[in-house]
Amino acid sequence: MGKFDWFWNAMGAKSAKHEKQSRKIVGQAQQQAADFDSLSDDKLREHARSSVNPSGEITDKSTFLAALATASSRKLGLRPYDVQSQAVLRLLTGDVIHMATGEGKTLVGAMAATGFALSGKRVHVVTVNDYLARRDAEWMRPLVESFGLEVAAVTESMDTAQRRQAYAADVVYAPVKELGFDVLRDNQITSREQAVFQQADVALVDEADSVLVDEALVPLVLAGTRADQATDPRVTTVVANLKQERDYTIGTDGRTVFLTDDGAATVEKELGIDSLYSDEHIGSTLVRVNLALHAKALLIRDIHYLVHDGELKLIDTAKGRVADLQRWPDGLQAAVEEKEGLKVTEGGRILDTLTIQELMRRYPQLCGMTGTAVEATDQLREFYGLYVSEIAPNKAPQRFDEADRVYATVAEKTQALLDEIELLHAQKQPVLIGTQDVAESESLDAALTERGINAQVLNAKNDAEEAAIIAEAGMPGRVTVSTQMAGRGTDIKLGGTDGTHYQEVKDAGGLAVLGTTRHRSSRLDNQLRGRAGRQGDPGLSLFFVSLEDDVVISGGAGESVEAQPDGNGRIDSGRIVDFIAHCQRVTEAQLLEIHSQTWKYNKLLADQREIIDERRSSLLDTDKAWTELRKYEPERAAELVAAGLADDVLVQASREIMLYHLDLAWADHLEHMDDVRESIHLRAIARETPIDEYHRIAVREFKEIVRRGVEAARESFREVVIDNAGAHLSEGGLARPSATWTYMVSDNPLAGSGNSALSGIGNLFR
Ligand code: ADP
Ligand code: MG
């Protein structure tokens, strides 16, 4: 680092300087690659290996790139473009590269992963779904293997043995949630051989903004069978009789619900308690009442959930399908089940949770790639300390980004959108329409059918099927309707996958991408735009917006604008376009603020988890548990030794006892802090800020659980039968869960595309 690099970084000149350097290296590599063409695979491997020094740095970058480029052409039939080689160098220094859709990031990622692996580091290439992990591992396998390295994919359907084997590879492609679930499951093992996950030195994240920003706060949950969770059906009954307006009010956003004073008094009377807001009840009864109230007033059968075969099935509103492996946060799930008179499934007990942000921050080195990194610069810096490097496109972009078309109402906007689709369709130009959710996709499809247009609708049925449909979205006259998330990572070639109609579609203007609204951040808009105009192809992007859209309503709250719509409701005014951009900047700032605030809560638990993890590791890997218990309980230890028990039996028995209580204490802590967080806004009134209050409680409680865990372990050590078969924990009522399962906490079904979920008492979702 030069002395003034901080200054140049701040001035955004870092990438300019690096670009000049890397262009030189890439130029040299190109010349070298010409000589490498005649070399054997073995020789290429030797050259690549010799470009790395013993401490794992790539010292001869041009030789390294030349060897990889040669192997790529030979094994994959892809000769890397210069910009791809430049991108590889940026990844190797740990940046997030901004590289447009269709520029070939899969190859870039594999080359960089190979570079890391050659320097002795294990790499996890993190994908957004199973389909992409499998596809990319298979696609890139010949390249990685030609350097004598192992490559594998981890996918949902794999069993423990298969996963363990996959994690042993040098380069592992895996969806982010599987990584998280494996980490969580490994935190329950009682001897080292049971471990599955192997921490990598580097995580290389594809679609980095989706994973590191959009999904960052999604909790991954490990639950298990444990029968000690109390529910209170009385609460449901009391709440069922409450009346809207008199006892509770629903916030204007329709996403929060508040007890009135009268309502609170009724509940207190019915439950026979003094005050819901007293210290005694605020973390328990009040939370349950709020959950039941949420379930009653805000969650609507057949919109937010279905009841099927006596079971509750969540509807993923964004995808419009039953979300199989998802549950609401536990109390809420139980509250809705009670409301519907179903058997309360309890979700067992939450044993552990981990957010994606926490998971990604555990990697010693992090880097990534996406078409929309620049727009996420602030978040990547703030939450991960990452820098963004912009990579120039291989060919000059030809896409035309038309100015937004603004309408007064949603109805007028939709008419105009349909007219535009009809027009483009008549000209045989393929059209891809990006919608907010599946409901919108479906109503659009119905309206198109009425106009005699047959559209392909991506319904998030499964990722592989979607990939196949979206891959053909560039066919002449094709109309494809898709939500933002659907078909990610799939290339749309003009004229179809085999390119037979390329010229025809090119002449028609290429792929047209239409947005049905501006998103809450311009980054999401750009993710959609990026679908058109790949590799210098012609293309069009155009957004339709109305003054009734979410982004305008939440971003422009409290502001008024004057506009004169024409006969079709169109508002053709630069001022209005500016206003909408302003609304979007407001929602962007709100999103960033929510992320920062939520992370502040999560960060503390993440730090505490580190302490627990360290303790766990030392209990697993050393005979610390036995040493400690022997010291605390010398009489019992002497008794066991005198009984002639072997050392390894004593060590393992002690380990199991200690781990049992450590894990239980941690689960209790998480549950308790969850309750605290739900009621923190009430607790903190007129005292400290909620976050300070939360910290104070978390630190105090954490010390307490550690102490209690050790105490309970001593007690078990004294009382549980220990013989040659080990510690008989289950006979002492201390069985570990007999079954565990994992899930992602569903998005707040009430948050829609707004962001008010984090305000008010109604904040039950994180
Ligand atoms: P991205 O992830 O950046 O959107 P992909 O990795 O999916 O892009 O690649 C897009 C397409 O470009 C693929 O069909 C791939 O085969 C092709 N491609 C990538 N690199 C090259 C190259 N160097 N030469 C020719 N085609 C390439
Ligand atoms: Mg990709």
Can you put this structure into words, describing what you see?
With 766 residues, this protein is α/β, with parallel strands linked by helices. It is 49% helix and 14% strand. The strands form six sheets. The chain has a seven-stranded parallel beta sheet, sandwiched between helices. A hairpin with a 2-residue loop joins strand 23 and strand 24. Helix 24 (574-621) runs antiparallel to helix 27 and helix 25 (624-632) crosses helix 27 (647-683). The protein is globular. It starts with a helix and ends in a 21-residue tail after the last strand. The site of magnesium ion has 4 residues, from helix 6. It comes from Corynebacterium pseudodiphtheriticum. Belongs to the SecA family. It holds the Pfam family SecA_DEAD. This is Protein translocase subunit SecA.
Name the hetero compounds present. adenosine-5'-diphosphate, magnesium ion
Please report the distance between the alpha carbons of the first and last residues.
Answer: 39 Å
Question: Strand order across the biggest sheet?
Answer: 3-4-2-5-14-1-15
**Biggest sheet descriptor:** 7 strands, parallel
Outline type = globular
What is the CA-atom radius of gyration, in angstroms?
29 Å
Overall mean pLDDT: 87
Beta-strand percentage range: 5-15%
Number of helices, where a helix is a run of at least 4 consecutive DSSP H or I residues: 28
Strand segment count:
25
The low-confidence parts are 747-766
Subcellular location: Cell membrane; Cytoplasm; Membrane
Enzyme class: translocase
EC number: 7.4.2.8
Protein name: Protein translocase subunit SecA
